[in-house]
């Protein structure tokens, strides 16, 4: 059969099915499968990461076009430090490369760049690139682009607990703790919880991502490796999300 159903036609068909007034406000993504994508092509893992950056470009720009309010991308976990040094170094060169070409476009698109995770252990060039991105987009009011770098959900929760204890001991706050107060100590303090979590590469796990914030998120998994993830997959995830009934414990 001839492939008359082009990507463009499939995109239009999906866009027609999607309710543009109900786009998930916050989409979080576990960008997984770069290494396997490369291995299947006989390429070094770094080639998968490089192609993964291309997917980030496409996903950020397309999400912005759809009117997504917050996009949170899991780029490096607290456990990813256990990878070989050469791979860590390669991964740590990517935020700078990405922002070097994309920052002017992000500024123009009114996107706000943000970091979730502990910057302490990140190499200086990553901290610098993110700080510059933050500064350049500080006055923007559009989509929040959250990079999770040296991020771990458990680390975030423990850090929040410690900060809260410190504030109680110094008299900055009283000793009453509720969900609202606790979440104000998380990296995502001012950001609503994700409506939709997407994980690529066929793994069905959270891998220490946004443990607190995902409490009532809709989860969407695909076997597609991150470098092959495209706008059609994103539209399909949004369409599936819109078919679900979020009950939040009610009937
Ligand atoms: C995702 O791809 C990138 C990071 C976790 C930093 P992987 O590097 O985990 O690729 P696989 O899972 O080994 O295929
Ligand atoms: C999760 O992917 C972390 C990121 C995408 C940054 P991993 O590849 O590290 O997860 P596991 O090890 O398969 O759980
Ligand atoms: Mg992986």
Which tags fit this structure?
globular, 6 strands, alpha/beta, binds magnesium ion, 251 residues, six-stranded parallel beta sheet, binds 3-methylbut-3-enyl trihydrogen diphosphate, 14% strand
How would you describe this protein?
This protein has helices spanning 7-17, 34-40, 45-66, 85-108, 124-136, 153-169, 179-183, 231-243, and strands spanning 26-30, 70-77, 112-116, 144-151, 196-199, 218-221. It has 8 helices and 6 strands, in the order H-E-H-H-E-H-E-H-E-H-H-E-E-H. The model has no long low-confidence stretch (mean pLDDT 97). It has a 6-stranded parallel sheet, with helices on both faces. It has a domain at 153-191. Helix content is 45%, strand content 14%. Helix 1 packs parallel to helix 8 and helix 3 runs parallel beside helix 4. By secondary structure, the chain is α/β, with parallel strands linked by helices. Strand 3 (112-116), helix 5 and strand 4 form a beta-alpha-beta unit. The protein is globular. One 3-methylbut-3-enyl trihydrogen diphosphate binds at residues 31-36, 76, 80, 91, 201, 226.
Short note summarizing the structure:
Helix content is 45%, strand content 14%.
Layout of secondary structure:
Blueprint (H helix, E strand, L loop, with lengths): L6 H11 L8 E5 L3 H7 L4 H22 L3 E8 L7 H24 L3 E5 L7 H13 L7 E8 L1 H17 L9 H5 L12 E4 L18 E4 L9 H13 L8
Parallel strand pairs: 1-2, 1-5, 2-4, 3-4, 5-6
Helix pairs in contact: 1-8, 2-3, 3-4, 4-5
Bound molecules: 3-methylbut-3-enyl trihydrogen diphosphate (IPE) (2 copies) and magnesium ion.
Strand residues, percent: 5-15%
Order of helices and strands: HEHHEHEHEHHEEH
Figure out the total of helices. Answer: 8
Overall 3D shape: globular
